[in-house]
Amino acid sequence: MKLRWFVVLVVLLAGCSSKPKYDYRNPPYNPTVPVQRAMQWMPISQKAGAAWGLDPKFITAIIAVESGGNPNVVSKSGAVGLMQLKPSTAGREVYRYMGWKGDPSVSELKNPERNISMGTAYFSILEHGVLAGIKDPEVMQYALVTSYVNGAGALLRTFSSDRKKAIEEINDMDKEEFFDHIVKNHPSPQAPRYIWKVQKAMDAID
């Protein structure tokens, strides 16, 4: 009798451990309206995408998810504008990359052209910097999204504390395997939900 209950307990625990800790699809997300609002900035997104080697459709999806297309929104954490850039983090990093001093101002980041240009530049910095070496373009896109919202370091540490080994492990995955890894291993529930929302937004763009 005790053995039977032990077997049942093991099976139950195994079943629980294989399930995600949360459902990244809740609450539901309808991208239709935010995508429509983000589409008004497509000419700027196309220009920035050409300058930094990023798909304008991807930029538009980020705008839809981050700000709903509102250039004046400021989050509780101080992220500003269409692509929700923080002056002292992503903004500063872009400034340093461009050889500029200081941080961008809030008013500068509320300017749609400046915000999209700097947000797109930041994605390029991630892609050709800490995430360099990821071969699959679709996996790279997921890695960029995760790094944008929760940091590249947090992402890579879910694979290995050694950057090179982390990149090697990522390169053994397709985008579905990468996403499943994020669902199961990333410490922030925001990470898989963000990937999911961006993908839904991209699918809604004509």
From TrEMBL:
PANTHER family: ENDO-TYPE MEMBRANE-BOUND LYTIC MUREIN TRANSGLYCOSYLASE A, SOLUBLE LYTIC MUREIN TRANSGLYCOSYLASE-RELATED. CDD domains: LT_MltC_MltE (cd16893). Signal peptide: none annotated. It comes from Scandinavium lactucae. It is a lipid-anchor. Murein-degrading enzyme. May play a role in recycling of muropeptides during cell elongation and/or cell division. Preferentially cleaves at a distance of more than two disaccharide units from the ends of the glycan chain. One of its GO terms (molecular function) is lyase activity. It is found in: Cell outer membrane. PROSITE patterns: PROKAR_LIPOPROTEIN, TRANSGLYCOSYLASE. Belongs to the transglycosylase Slt family. It catalyses: Endolytic cleavage of the (1->4)-beta-glycosidic linkage between N-acetylmuramic acid (MurNAc) and N-acetylglucosamine (GlcNAc) residues in peptidoglycan with concomitant formation of a 1,6-anhydrobond in the MurNAc residue; Exolytic cleavage of the (1->4)-beta-glycosidic linkage between N-acetylmuramic acid (MurNAc) and N-acetylglucosamine (GlcNAc) residues in peptidoglycan, from either the reducing or the non-reducing ends of the peptidoglycan chains, with concomitant formation of a 1,6-anhydrobond in the MurNAc residue. Its main location: membrane. This is Endo-type membrane-bound lytic murein transglycosylase A. The gene is emtA.
